[in-house]
Amino acid sequence: MVDSIPSIWPHSALPFFISLLAGNRSIALLQQDLIAEAAGHRIPIPHYTNWLSEFPILLKLHCIEVVPFLSSSYISLHDTAIHPIFSSLLWDRTGVQEFIDPSHDAMRPAIALATKWITSDLFLGWWIRVLYGTFETDKESGKLYLAASPKEHDFPQAKADLEKAFAQLAENLRYYWKPEDENTAATSRNPWMALWGLDNQRWDAEADAHINEFAPCINLPTIFLYHLLSPRGARQASTCSNLRLQFHIAKTLVHELAHAFHMFVHRDKCEPYIFLEDWIPEAGFSWEQFVFGCDVTAFPFKLEGIGAVCAMEFEHMHAFPGICVPLAMRWVEKWFLNETWNSAPDIEFCNPITAEKLLKRYQGLIYADRFLPSANLWSRVLYQNQKPVGIQSLAIPGAPPPMGMRFNAMANLGMIPHRWNIQEWFDQVREKDIEAAVASGFDRDSFVKGRSKVYQAQCYDNDGIGPKC
Ligand SMILES: [Zn+2]
Predict the structure, then answer these.
(1) 255 C-alpha to center of ligand 1: Å?
(2) Res 420 pLDDT > 70
(3) Which residue from 319, 247, 233 is spatially nearest to 43, judged by alpha carbons?
(4) In the prediction, which pLDDT does 119 show?
(5) Quick one: pLDDT band at residue 399, thresholds 50, 70, 90?
(6) Who's near 355: CB < 8 A, 6+ residues apart?
(7) Confidence (pLDDT) at 400
(8) Alpha carbon distance 110, 74 (integer Å)
(9) Which of 41-50, 163-172, 373-382 shows the highest mean pLDDT?
(10) What are the angstrom distances between the C-alpha of 320 and each of 7, 148, 315, 369, 449?
(11) Is pLDDT of 122 > 80?
(12) Residue range 42-61: mean pLDDT, rounded
């Protein structure tokens, strides 16, 4: 039956898409690992200490493993209810036929969590606002947003309407694995637009010709596929490594579904601020703000493995330099526990602490991007109890090539002074670091405060200079 599912790709695009898959590193490594496994070779799981120098500190503070290990029942093991909008039948099989069913099984915990996020009463307010909301401009701020409809008050009816809308969207929606070794995902209005995203020069005319077709497709990157299926992937590394992977995939899936849902309800209209208090008019981040109050992303997210899940104010999300808080593994784990969902999860748990909320003399962990003049490079530095304790090299576009790290680089960073709270301190050192880096030859345009250029260009309000809806 599954062989009869038509490909989302137009016939003329099949060789193009298959050649992209053939050249993709995540797919090549996955195939290589699976062949080695089938041949009975011992596959070494990469050890964190080889690629995450601050691993022992993160481990000690329980950001990597849950200590003591608590094995309560996880939702994925007992909850068989998976929303049809995540059905494996919606995944495109072109060039990846052998991976579709195994990967769908492997990400069952993520799909179970994503199902909770789109069906639990506590979180339905976001979807109901998109479903019923009407476009209005706020007089004070000039922001275009979705104003509440009186229909929101009839919750049982709203819930039923929402379920109907999800069912209709599921009839049009498709997913595909995008050949991509970075942690990215996107939603396109139709496969022609998705092709345009893969090679905008080659598919420009076709994408333009099909601009009005509504057949949304969500892509996840093949690096997720690698981590789900390779014997060396994050799913195999440990229970907690798998939970971080599953959390990350769940969040990414629902973020993209938020875009597809807005597109389904409001068609040609651009994404407004769903709620007036949103950081940017971007449906996926609006949903994240609704559920988490911030951005939560596993960092780093590489082929070698997946680091701690970190909480970041939206303001720092696409900025550089930025600051974030590595979260205890317990927080990630809690989303997957049956007991969390037996009653509604409380908001205090849903919203993790971010740097902006930290007071003076913070004893825990933060990551801050710092410039290390002695090594002439930028690094994400881990602080514990106000002291720098770990360092990670981080290349940014436009930077001169690093000259190599010197051992004293961290010693020069100093402590976070007790008189400042974390955000005040970061505001200060960010300015100093940027000036020092520019003086050392870094391109000033590489640094972003607040909204990234990508989002400035995409958001309709564009800080006042962009296209209007
Ligand atoms: Zn998005």
Answers:
(1) 6
(2) yes
(3) 233
(4) 95
(5) very low
(6) 312, 313, 316, 323, 324, 325, 366, 422, 423, 426
(7) 43
(8) 11
(9) 163-172
(10) 39, 35, 10, 7, 7
(11) yes
(12) 80
Cα gap 394→177, rounded to integer Å: 27
3-class state of residue 267 by DSSP: coil
CB-based contacts of 431, cutoff 8 Å, min separation 6: none
Tokens encoding 288: 């994240």
CB 315 within 8 A of CB 450: yes
**How many Å apart are CA 75 and CA 335, to the nearest integer?**
9
Per-residue model confidence as pLDDT tens digits over 275-289: 999 988 899 999 999
**C-alpha of residue 441 to centroid of ligand 1, in Å:** 33
Domain boundaries, the chain: 1-42+74-293
Distance 269 CA to ligand 1 centre (A): 15
CA of residue 71 to ligand 1 center, whole Å? 33
List Cβ neighbours of 425 (8 Å cut-off, separation of 6 or more).
416, 417
For ligand 1, the distance from its centroid to the CA atom of residue 257, given in whole angstroms, is: 9
Closest listed residue to residue 388, CA positions, set 425, 434, 439: 425
The torsion angles phi and psi of 301, rounded to 5 degrees, stand at -125, 95
Task: Calculate how far, in angstroms, residue 259's C-alpha sits from the geometric centre of ligand 1.
Answer: 7
Measure 5 CA to ligand 1 centroid, in angstroms.
27
Indicate if the pLDDT at residue 93 is higher than 50. Answer: yes
Do the beta carbons of residue 416 and residue 283 sit within 8 Å? no
Positive or negative CA dihedral for 458, 462, 467, 469? positive
Residue 331's SS3 state is helix
Q: Angle at the Cα of 332 (from 326 to 338), degrees rounded to 5?
A: 165
